[in-house]
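Practice record 12: protein with zinc ion.
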Amino acid sequence: MSLDNLRDLYQQVILERYKKPRNRGKTDPVDRYQKGHNPSCGDTIELTLKFNEAGDRIDDVKFEGEGCAISMASADLMAEALRGRSPAEALEMVQKFQAMMRGEAEFPQEFRKLNVMQGVAQFPVRIKCANLSWHTLKAALELAQDAPEFVSNE
Ligand code: ZN
């Protein structure tokens, strides 16, 4: 696949997700809530998580927010990929995503949709947009008690 084709593909996926997100809203109930903000672009996200009864799997993930197509598409793809994962697996995916954006890793076949965000890594100023939802997820999973009102990825 040529670089141009690859660019087209990732732009198509991002635009489609931006226009028709599949995971917008709030989970019911809200087991975790975290706001995130990307000052360099102005993207904001409110992430909600629902766990299963045992509390060891993520049952549902939803997001609300305002921002550029990349930040919103990244949140939508992330929400889908997280369902059924344990918090530990989700945190591993955060690391993997950040490594991918540095050009150091790829997701395996089962998460291949996430690899589309790699296209964004060609535009360094946009990497923070793609990372915002993952950064916010990390805070939502790690900071159960003393969570700040919102996290910033600056
Ligand atoms: Zn942005």
